[in-house]
Amino acid sequence: MTMHYPLLVPSILNRARTAFPSKEIITRLEGAEGGVHRYTYREMAARVNRLCNALNFLGVKQGDRVGTFAWNTYRHLEAYFASPVMGAVNHTINIRLFPDDLVYIVNHAQDKVIFVDPDLCPILEALAPRLESVEHYVILTDDPEPATTLPNAVSYESLLAQASDQFTPPEMDEWDPAGLCYTSATTGRPKGVTYSHRALYLHSMAECMADTAAFSERDTTMAVVPMFHANCWGFPYSSALVGASQVMPGVRPDPQAICELIDRHRVTVTAGVPTIWVGVLDYLERSGQSYDFSSLRAVISGGSAVPVSVIRAYKERLGVDLVHAYGMTEATPIVTYNRVKTHLEDLPEDEKYELAGSQGMVVAGLEMRLVDDEGNDLPWDGEQRGELLFRGPWISREYYNDERTAETYIDGWYHSGDIASVDPDGYVQIGDRVKDMVKSGGEWISSVDLETAIIAHPDVLEAAVIAIPHPTWVERPLACVVPREGARESLDKAQVMDFIRDRFARWWLPDDVVFIEEIPKTSVGKFDKKVLRERYQDYVVGG
Amino acid sequence: MTMHYPLLVPSILNRARTAFPSKEIITRLEGAEGGVHRYTYREMAARVNRLCNALNFLGVKQGDRVGTFAWNTYRHLEAYFASPVMGAVNHTINIRLFPDDLVYIVNHAQDKVIFVDPDLCPILEALAPRLESVEHYVILTDDPEPATTLPNAVSYESLLAQASDQFTPPEMDEWDPAGLCYTSATTGRPKGVTYSHRALYLHSMAECMADTAAFSERDTTMAVVPMFHANCWGFPYSSALVGASQVMPGVRPDPQAICELIDRHRVTVTAGVPTIWVGVLDYLERSGQSYDFSSLRAVISGGSAVPVSVIRAYKERLGVDLVHAYGMTEATPIVTYNRVKTHLEDLPEDEKYELAGSQGMVVAGLEMRLVDDEGNDLPWDGEQRGELLFRGPWISREYYNDERTAETYIDGWYHSGDIASVDPDGYVQIGDRVKDMVKSGGEWISSVDLETAIIAHPDVLEAAVIAIPHPTWVERPLACVVPREGARESLDKAQVMDFIRDRFARWWLPDDVVFIEEIPKTSVGKFDKKVLRERYQDYVVGG
């Protein structure tokens, strides 16, 4: 009697098919008519059914992982739906991972099938002998005989052509896994995060709430963020749930392609990392081209902090709201979204831009805590810094088959590793990652704050501040500075220290400055402070 | 590890308290400063904690039912939260029920405590000896010695003053009951519907989605619909979830009070039955008063169909969107909401008003079917009529301890009893209740359509069309007509039949017309066709 109505991905597809059958999915496709492939949710749903039958045919069982190694296209979108609709798990693989990490995650996930875009085949061909679990590679092409050395390769369109477009999803529980995404750890192998049907469904509802991203039937959404990044920030499912049109930027979208898609297809909401939006600004300046961006109601920026200057440039030069959001693979991924509360609307312009530069408020549905390093709650006073903890219906509870779960998920709370302050209105301002903070005499010093100050010096190209051991204070900050070309001989320690001296409490100032050739970087281009910390672990100030 | 994060009402309160502590709840209160009581979510949350402790003190245990018999006020809102937060069930009792029904539902629900507004005490005083389960009546007043003959009566404010404002909710499951509401059946006793924490939470998220009512922090909501009607259409919980300000219209709000509250407190969204909105229009015309309604973005009308003429009057005379929604107690209650799809925006004005007069589309999250009387799915072609069936996360699965469950909940689908057509865009147009349809020779005839046509005759005051038995066709329509004053002698059958003859297929036309003094009505003012069917069960045409 109290029969359970589960929250399932198939219901999202069903909503798009029945309520918005003629809304379109438009994929950038060079050489196609108008430069795009376009079809409707009705057609998509029929092809998803075919794909479900095809996966059955390939031997995929309920609970099996099905990998994708692909750009943002309608075929990738079909895989996003088909795997969970037929009971399997949609495992989106980052095409930019180092080969050893790729091998690790495919084997760790035990992917049974992988969908691969044709131009990405060479990457997997080199690794195929080491990918133990993969039984079939499905090449995302209409070429019936795709040219690849991948074993058991099959053409996507040939596969679909053979399959029926009628499919009934199996019995599923909302706690069953539907998605899987690995997050690149800066230490050790990537860690996998499983998304349940329930988490994906609730995240979609939350994203469509008026005070989150407010996805609507009126929208044309475009995820520039790759579909292999953290559930594509929810775009594929949230858009389908409300019948928004979707624009998919296809293979290797550059700033010009992004601008053209926004202009031609009247995109209303788009999203990507700050690098993308800085690149678009830069392209517009260099090219002198102009585009019609009047359809855009929000450009969502996430993945790392976006400078206030960029937010300001978008508003003042393009008339576009660049909206800061914050999240992580472990959170499906949205945890905060930046909207101005009504009582803050009359702030002076500069303060409003500062507010827009924060990560925004935790979204409805989630709980957030700010804690010190002993786990005590800190006040939301805009001053005190602590680690952000989250829990809620779309926050994961573990890493997939990974012992590192215990380090991150404690007493039901996900420990983000992000250090932030929270103001009395709930706006989050993120500083460092926990492991990048300097803990001096029991007090935290922000390496990011020091770096930002040092980089402002005209003769400095890059700067990284790390903790070095200290007999009294346990840790003290050391500044590693890369001078600009032409200043390599002239820039000295005193100039750097003098430049930042008045901006920090005395005990925050670095104990020393070292000049280096370049800052070591990780595979995704972030500072690799682990390498620096190892290099300077025995550093003696003035030694 | 895969620890469950349940969807609970306490999380909604927690959201309002932590993210929107200074947003206000404003209650119309005659004699108070500015004519209102006002306080913040922070203050409300502290008082809810006090009330939780007070309920514990009164012996309320997890799962117990706590009744409310009250107007829309901040104290009623506190009860809405406190009962589910402390693990009990918030049972909102319709203050307008007939005495025997009141006795029935209080005893059936086994309410342990009832919150009563002072002016409503006399109603319960007369019934108290028959209310077997009630151990305490809490009078919603700050008078420490409320004047009532109710046994074990206690003052609400005295109770709160003694209680601590610190409270930790007990362990709960999201499937636990949190709310209870009885729906008045036209036959038999009222039927109870239980709302789980999960259903209330998901209904709140859905109501805040951009394409549903889009509740937002920017809103000031005002439920004119009584808090004892079908979960108050979600207003108390949805508003708190997003930190919207809430205006509560207090004791016996009349059209003037409603207009003043909208004007003074800049209400953005309000909701009520059509009678309310027709009354407001009428008041504005009669009084010649004018109010500032520019803050209003939506006046939601539900409970019964609203004439297109009223929607048009709101738009043209007041510049306000009157939005048609449809739901029922069994559905927490929202099932459809009327928004114009983008591709329909260019319709001619008249067609747009016709569309606005429909019930709108089924909201995201729910599934809808249109079926014939054998349960076969009918096409959504805007023509064929069938019964609407619903299922989804906030559609109830049973009546509370009631054998009538089996008549309404079949194979996981709630059978609404409403007959409608659905157009290809998914817009629902409701005609009759199933039991009011005439089934002639296997085909359905809409009594509502015939009534609407007959009532348009200038000499007709009211008309009800019912089914009478027929040897060949099983049923045939009979028109029961009440002439206007002054036309009692002149109006005859032929005039009525001639007036509607060209508007219907011949087999739809009533077999006969009878003239009566008045149409019998139910307790809530609806036509009581059951009485008419009994009266005319042996009627012979022309006999």
Structure write-up:
Two copies of one chain form a homodimer. With 543 residues, chain A is α/β, with parallel strands linked by helices. The first copy, chain A, folds into three domains: 9-194, ANL, N-terminal domain (Rossmann fold, 3-Layer(aba) Sandwich); 323-426, Luciferase, Domain 3 (Luciferase, domain 3, Roll); 437-535, GMP Synthetase, Chain A, domain 3 (2-Layer Sandwich), CATH 3.30.300.30. Helices cover 29% and strands 24% of the residues of chain A. Chain A has 16 helices and 26 strands. In chain A, strands 2-1-11-10-12-13-14-15-16 form a nine-stranded mixed sheet, with helices on both faces. In chain A, helix 1 runs antiparallel to helix 2 (41-57) and helix 2 crosses helix 6. Chain A is globular and about 75 Å long. The relative contact order of chain A is 0.08.
